[in-house]
Amino acid sequence: KEGARGGVGGGNDFQWCFSQVKGAIDEDVAEADIISTVEFNYSGELLATGDKGGRVVIFQREQESKNRPHSRGEYNVYSTFQSHEPEFDYLKSLEIEEKINKIRWLPQQNAAHFLLSTNDKTIKLWKISERDKRAEGYNLKDEDGRLRDPFRITSLRVPVLMPMDLMVEASPRRIFANAHTYHINSISVNSDHETYLSADDLRINLWHLEITDRSFNIVDIKPANMEELTEVITAAECHPHQCNVFVYSSSKGTIRLCDMRAAALCDRHTKFFEEPEDPSSRSFFSEIISSISDVKFSHSGRYMMTRDYLSVKVWDLNMENRPVETYQVHEYLRSKLCSLYENDCIFDKFECCWNGSDGAIMTGSYNNFFRMFDRNSRRDITLEASRESSKPRAMLKPRKVCTGGKRKKDEISVDSLDFNKKILHTAWHPKENVIAVAATNNLYIFQDKIN
């Protein structure tokens, strides 16, 4: 692991500087080390990543010290544990990958932290707790743990707690299994903090955090005849304030908002969000690129954001017929869709995230580029996560992609973009301008200027 401090900039003007990078420098990346999800907890003090090897790594923000006033709290490894192992479904002759698809934190209620992690089939609730004391002076066993002869015990000792080196323990408290026939793509903790939903390609289930042996099926779009299947569920999320409301997106580019008060099975949506397609821009790839890969409610609960292959759209929950804002992420790839289809990149699932005040949004692109959009000024910027710019206090330089004609000095040609380097997973600190960007097996942390 290696890290460095940030430099000068200003968050409102999209001036970001390098803070830290976590990961190996090796060119040959092991498949198991590729980061598959990134998530800050509610306070932003902890940052969790999951990888394709089934591991969860939690980083904790160091407290600012008087000796290093400009450090602004770097993130260092707090706990690492194996969340999921590879399994085999003997009934279906199917391998179940250990890859972590999603991590979601629960609000902190006591000294311990809790998070949900899921692979394709099984969701687990993990407790992460600290221990800095141990009991000594047992009556029935020696200090090395061996049992004592009961006949030699002549006096009663009162065990005492002695200080020890800090130990962070991760223990699985609940395992929610056997509820999904298809691959789980989303989990979302409800605002009542007692229930959560999990979504696969065709169904959404509602769970209680204390009950592992049953869940309620609240959406089922599986047709009686699978040959009639026209769309699948791609993402789902609970409303941040109304525990009865949730949304789910589909591969057809539509979003359905459902109210659990209306019916036990929410097959009938309450609201249906869809933007009419422009007939002039229709092509062979229209259906593929309109598929929504991520949906996120704003912190206020008034808006939601969706990401399709080429754009990010912001929807007002009170207006269903079209988005209120549309941001082009990499429109220059529209002419490259044929080659992106051949190398399967067109099926990449990019995520998106809001900043703490809902005033800016971020999403990833190719060539280790990621995009930021300011909703108020309508300004946008392209930045790059790379070790070349990862010098202490180094400002991130805006990048530009040249689509044709004469290329300027600082521009990069669309033909020289590396489609193997992609940023699918990003996270924004809930209260500060600190962002985490996963680039293959490296986790980059950037921040705005130091005041």
From TrEMBL:
Belongs to the phosphatase 2A regulatory subunit B family. This is Serine/threonine-protein phosphatase 2A 55 kDa regulatory subunit B. GO terms for cellular component: protein phosphatase type 2A complex. One of its GO terms (molecular function) is protein phosphatase regulator activity. Keywords: Repeat, WD repeat. The lineage of its organism: Eukaryota, Metazoa, Chordata, Craniata, Vertebrata. It comes from Scleropages formosus (Asian bonytongue). PP2A consists of a common heterodimeric core enzyme, composed of a 36 kDa catalytic subunit (subunit C) and a 65 kDa constant regulatory subunit (PR65 or subunit A), that associates with a variety of regulatory subunits. PANTHER family: PROTEIN PHOSPHATASE PP2A REGULATORY SUBUNIT B.
